[in-house]
Amino acid sequence: MRNDTQGLLLNISAVEKDTGLSKDVLRMWERRYGFPRPGRDDNGERQYSATDVGKLRAMKRLMDVGLRPGKIIGLTLTELNAIADARTPARPSPLALDIEHDVLAMLRSHDLPGLQHTLANQVMRQGLQRFVLDTITPLNRAVGDAWMRGDLQVFEEHLYTEQLQVALRAAINASPRQSGTPRMLLTTLPAELHGLGLLMVEAMLVPEGVHCISLGPQTPLEDIRRAAIAHQVHIVALSFSAAFPVRQAVDGLATLRRELPAQMTLWAGGELTRRVRKTMPGIMLIPDLAWTVNALHSWRTHHVPQPV
Amino acid sequence: MRNDTQGLLLNISAVEKDTGLSKDVLRMWERRYGFPRPGRDDNGERQYSATDVGKLRAMKRLMDVGLRPGKIIGLTLTELNAIADARTPARPSPLALDIEHDVLAMLRSHDLPGLQHTLANQVMRQGLQRFVLDTITPLNRAVGDAWMRGDLQVFEEHLYTEQLQVALRAAINASPRQSGTPRMLLTTLPAELHGLGLLMVEAMLVPEGVHCISLGPQTPLEDIRRAAIAHQVHIVALSFSAAFPVRQAVDGLATLRRELPAQMTLWAGGELTRRVRKTMPGIMLIPDLAWTVNALHSWRTHHVPQPV
DNA sequence: TTCTATTGTTGTCCTGGACATAAAATCCCA
DNA sequence: TGGGATTTTATGTCCAGGACAACAATAGAA
Questions:
Q1: Helix H segments across B149-290?
Q2: Rounded Cα gap, residues A186 and A137, in angstroms
Q3: Tens digits of per-residue pLDDT, B236-267?
Q4: Does residue B182 have a cis bond before it (omega within 30 degrees)?
Q5: Which domains does chain A have, with CATH numbers?
């Protein structure tokens, strides 16, 4: 623990900052589920134990990947950790572990130049695609876990994301000019803030010679349609984080599919797509980054290059 | 405006994120002062206009430098801005304006490497002390103003602070090894989070040959005493941001003065010290960074170097 | 003048209710 | 039996208004 929360009791404001769960949610859970049930000080105000806060962090982390509070609030911290572990079967390589350790240390000491240097080096060493699959993916998990253990503050996690985006963008721009086929439009729907996934997809595809046109996150549906037509893209790819409401995603995709020219392929990727049951005609779900390359190969074999 | 809040109405959550004023405070002000008085949607929930949010941001900014809400809530946005302007009489130089412009642009585009580069260059060009006085001070204000206008998000402001600390730390470490006199202990009291002021003081003094020992922010009183004695420092310097409660600062300083050996000098600096009326025996108030150097010279003339 | 007690300000927390919206379960139709 | 629409359940956010602690300002005492 870096936070000096050892035997200490936290008030509701501190718990809100620490866990990211709003005061309203904390009180609501107490009312509805009976957990957490903090003690009260002389003044009748809630005093949360470090133990409870630890469990709250673990719950938050699982909820961020789609689990619902009612399902997990009865479990012990050990059980929660077991669920989290079960969701990430692959053990990272020893090399990745080294990097993880270094990166976490640099985040804790706010050594941003060191962090940039490490990330840039690692891209060089592994190449962009392997970097995304073998380094970033476990690293993201490690950073999330560190937060859960109280080893990183919210802001430090934010710093990490930011630096990672910088590194990826630099590496993507360093790639030889992308003017190949297919042309692909990359973005997210409005309300989806998570731009990192977008960059990761781009990093996977640019080395394959794909001509990526990224609009950044939060593009209104109508603008996506217009941009797709203006750029004459072959594929429109949308990214969805786990937190995005399934219903909104499905509706948005269906609308977009209806409004896009039929010959344009529509891809949907990101954590959220693992939770989608329905098969949606004309929409390709890509729940795993590693599959993007397969999906691309498949697209290429089915689309004979057109003479310009 | 970068935020797409033009004709839009914001709900209370969005205003909280945007202004940094908690929902409770927003409701309380409405109850007590009658401002803001947002409209209601079909569901009876508050809907704030962009105009009101602008005034709220301006108020928040003034409160962060010590004004009280009751005094300013009746003023118009123009009057609030006039007060803010009046507090910073010096106009920055044309050079500083250029840098401001560049830095803001880079913050908006999240160009961290560019930002680091610019800051590092500027340190080289001006030297550490002038950098602190002529660049950082107006830059801090420019960043704060940009936030107030809605041109920067909270997170981008945070990013700025972080990068600035990185740049300062690098420049300080690059200075020739500090082993001179006086030896000075630098820190802040617990509950004071603001570490930037500390670094700025250090940056002012290291080029003067002061041997700075920084404990970072938030050191418990007893630890300050112990560290001061262990390192046999000549001066203990504490930094206080404007937001720090005056009473706590005064009490903390008095206690520390009592517990420190009499021959040790105690300095208190930072925005807060401008609001302190009381003269405190044995404690030197330094409300302006530029005065640190004077204070140092004065200390040196009054303390004949001791043979070791 | 400086210290201390009092008074006014201001923010945070509390309870408990209402309700919108997402997810899950159910139903219905081909 | 699968897909789509509809109902039910789960969950989060908002609201009102009260209480009170912490802080600042002011008045009074030494």
A1: 154-174, 196-205, 221-230, 246-259
A2: 20
A3: 999 999 989 999 999 999 999 999 999 999 99
A4: yes
A5: 12-53+68-86 (1.10.1660.10), 94-174 (1.10.1240.10), 183-302 (3.40.50.280)
User: From the CA of B61, how many Å to the nearest CA of chain A?
Assistant: 21
Nearest to A172 by CA among A208, A128, A236, A237: A128
Interface contact A110-B155, CB threshold 8 A:
no
Name every residue whose Cβ is closer than 8 Å to that of residue B138 and which is 6 or more positions away in sequence.
Answer: B90, B92, B96, B100
CB contact under 8 A, B163 and A116: no
pTM for the complete prediction? Answer: 0.89
A159, A166, A170 ranked by CB distance to B162: nearest: A159
**Nearest residue in chain B measured CA to CA from A112:** B166
Element holding B291 (H helix, E strand): helix B291-302
- List residues with CB under 7 Å of strand C: A 11-13, 23, 27, 31, 44-46, 68, 245-248, 275; B 22, 24-25, 28-29, 32, 42-43, 63, 68-71, 278-279
Q: What is the pLDDT of residues B143-186, one digit of tens each?
A: 999 999 999 988 899 889 999 999 999 999 998 876 788 999 99
Residue A181 to residue A183: CA distance in whole angstroms: 5
Across the interface, whether the CB atoms of A112 and B110 are under 8 A apart is answered no
The one-letter code for the residue type at B139 is L
Are residues B250 and B276 in contact, defined by beta-carbon separation less than 8 angstroms? yes
Q: Which of B235, B200, B234 is nearest to B217 (CA)?
A: B200
